[in-house]
Amino acid sequence: MAKYTYEEIKRRFEDCIKVGYEPELMIYLGGKMYGIIGYADFVEFMRIPCVDFSEIVRFGSLDELYNTQTVDEVLLVRDWDRIEKFECMDFSIYFEEDF
Question: Can you list the positions of beta strands (E) in 1-98?
């Protein structure tokens, strides 16, 4: 069901970070919304809404997040094809296309 491959998302994340953006990607999985925020040195993953900062999980890289089970037992390497929807305003601005 996923519209974008992991490799496409990773490339877009890296391109945004290179120009100083901190991309915020929302994914919908199993009827829940999750956020992935990219920074120069790490990424964060959280369920949205995030009611407690202790629910934010930090990873050293997008690859580490992709291969690690996290909040609500989400494991992106296993669950990627079940992602129902992607949203990222940063990608839309940077790539000048609807995302």
Answer: 24-29, 32-38, 43-48, 57-59, 85-87
CA neighbor of 19 nearest in space, from 95, 82, 97, 99: 95
pLDDT digits (tens, 9 = 90+) for 19-42: 888 999 999 999 999 999 999 999
Number of domains in the chain: 1
- Which residue, chain included where needed, has tokens 């291969």? 67
Q: Cβ(66)–Cβ(77) under 8 Å?
A: yes
User: What pairs with residue 34 in β-bridges?
Assistant: 27, 47
Answer for the pair 65, 25: CB distance below 8 angstroms, yes or no.
no
Residue numbers of the domain that contains 31: 6-95
In a domain, 52, yes or no: yes
